[in-house]
Write a structure and sequence with these properties.
By secondary structure, the chain is an all-alpha fold. The chain is built from 16 helices and no strands. The chain has helices at residues 3-9, 11-29, 47-50, 57-64, 66-86, 88-98, 103-114, 121-132, 138-145, 157-185, 189-197, 202-227, 234-238, 246-249, 252-262, 266-294. It is a multi-pass membrane protein.
Length: 300
């Protein structure tokens, strides 16, 4: 079928897709041209055409700056923690929800675990600040009841990474189960019926049928997660960050905000953003190649 015939036949689908296409063009692709200021000493009054070119000067400064290397280390550590501890939680939660046989109870549980996703990080931050307060927090009341001294969790570098990962798991894990539950719902019931005839229990069915069947979905989401490895999220860190915990808590996104918007180092922070994008691209290409060799599934 020719391109014209396809367009004529499926034109409603193309029309529906236009808002999404325009969104990516306007907010994703056009801004890429602004990355050129990473190679300039950008001046907002002179603009891109009038600002002097400096080549790779900002990239050299980036890797020579001790503070940036510490922040890059924080971002990598938090990214690894998020991948190891947070990524498997929606999978496990979806498998557990799939085992609930009482429909009404299952819907209630699903609603409860989905709800935190609709809270903004400002609200989540406020909730945790209240819970972890050293004077009025519920957690420290429990600690004090056992005879221990209250802990200022948000004022200690040793706890900030745990708080960031834990709050993310609580907020987004329930929402992440939706895709996995949809993948599980698409499994052919005859596979389970055959397994029951062969004497397989629920646990055996889960690991022999459910998990292998949804493995392609898991790999696709894992690759997307790897592509955003350095993009942990500005707001989820910024609401918890303060001068007492920023040694282990500050990441590239919050540093770009502080150096770029507050200190107006536009070219330098654009170079950092470009570096982060290149790293993400390299990671997703490597991950996709390994995935296709091991499982036969990939993004492309």
């Amino acid at each position: 079928m020719s391109w014209g015939a396809t367009l004529k036949r499926y034109w409603p689908l193309y029309v529906i897709s236009l808002p999404g296409i325009f969104f990516f063009i306007i907010f994703k692709y056009l801004p890429l041209f602004g990355s050129v200021i990473a190679f300039q000493n950008y001046n907002i009054f002179k603009g891109i055409t009038g600002s002097p070119w400096v080549g790779l000067e900002h990239f050299k400064r980036m890797f020579a700056y001790t503070e940036f290397l510490i922040i890059l280390k924080n971002t990598l550590i938090i990214g690894v923690y998020d991948l190891v501890f947070a990524f498997p939680v929606p999978i496990i939660l979806a498998l557990l929800l799939n085992e609930i046989r009482i429909s009404a109870y299952k819907r209630i549980v699903q609603t409860v675990v989905y709800m935190p996703h609709f809270l903004s990080w400002v609200i989540v931050g406020g909730i945790l600040v209240g819970l972890l307060s050293p004077t009025t927090g519920f957690v420290n009341h429990i600690i004090s009841s056992f005879g221990f001294q209250p802990i200022y969790f948000l004022g200690d570098n040793d706890y900030i990474r745990t708080i960031l990962i834990g709050s993310g798991i609580w907020k987004d894990s329930g929402w992440g189960t939706i895709i996995y539950l949809a993948a599980i719902a698409g499994i052919n019931p005859e596979l389970y019926e055959a397994a029951v005839i062969d004497g397989a229990g629920r646990l055996r069915q889960t690991f022999s049928i459910t998990v292998p069947t949804i493995l392609p979905t898991i790999m696709i989401l894992l690759l997307l997660h790897i592509g955003n490895f350095l993009d942990f999220g500005f707001e989820r860190v910024f609401v918890f960050l303060n001068s007492l915990n920023n040694q282990n808590g500050e990441i590239i996104d919050t540093y770009v905000y502080r150096a770029g918007l507050v200190d107006r180092q536009y070219s330098y922070t654009t170079a950092i953003g470009l570096f982060k994008s290149v790293v993400g691209l390299v990671l997703i290409v490597i991950g996709n190649t390994l995935s296709k060799k091991t499982t036969g599934e990939g993004l492309y």
